[in-house]
Specification:
There is one protein chain. The protein is of the alpha+beta class and 318 residues long. It is built from six helices and 17 strands. The strands form three sheets. It has a seven-stranded antiparallel β-sheet, with helices on both faces. The chain has a six-stranded antiparallel β-sheet with strand order 1-10-9-4-3-2, with helices on one face.
Length: 318
Amino acid sequence: MSANLYRGWHQIAFERELRDRLTPAALGHLPLVLIRDQDRVHAVDAVCPHRGAHLAYGGKLDGDAIVCPFHGHRIGIGETPGCEYMVRRYRTLTVGGLVFVLPDERHDNGFTALMEELNRTHFFVQGFTLVAHAPAELVVENGFDRRHFEFVHALKSTPNLRLGPGGHGELVIQGDFQAAAFESNWHPGGEGQASTEIGFLARVFSPNVCVSRLGEGESEHLVISGATPNGDGRCTIRVSVAVRARSDGRPPSESAIRALLRDSKLAYEQDLAIWEHRVHDAPSRFDDEDDLVIEFHRFCKNFLEAERSEQSRAHQAR
């Protein structure tokens, strides 16, 4: 694990959080301004290049520039003619009320295509937010930790999880969970059974964003999880769902969606009891059952190489 900023996708906000045209945000120690422009959200560096003021606190949007609250300079958003000072604009994606930002264009890994496809075929529901005193990447890593499902979440046995094919640079795991039998609105038919088998597939697009599929066919539900570092040792977790319309074209059951979000929140609260008391800088002694966690750590390193290369080039240029 690394304290550096991973250069892949992050969920930076829910749209409902953006009440003003300029909203302060952060990716770790990188301060940002989120700009609401009609039906789009933009993300730019928040630090004024003149004297370091935070442009979201008192700044005013003026066309394609932000008027700095410190000295009144027009700070161009990206390449803006007529502006002496400019800030970098980052790629963003807003789908179903979920707002994502990509610090490095090289790490899309098929995420944009998937979300745009889901936007055509599924209903999105903005879910819940939790704050954890834990590294952000630990949240996604949890999906690769087979053993914890049995002991933290009371599954009947260690789930059969394995790496699957990913065609766009993402990391994929698939398998099934053998959970205690239950009857719920989003998983009918469990009552009276000794156990319930749930098909599972997770596509991890960055160390901070995962899209998980539970069930198949008409009973398929997608859980979209994002964990963004706050820069103070904590992270903000945002969880939402995407559900297909019913076979007759009607929207999915509201009670099913509420049940899925409730069950997801309960699972995260169970994890929080471990995460917030874990010694995060303690050395790890992996065993054979940690093979998927090790693969996830290797995956994470890919998102630091570009940053290290940029730092190396800057150092050599001095």
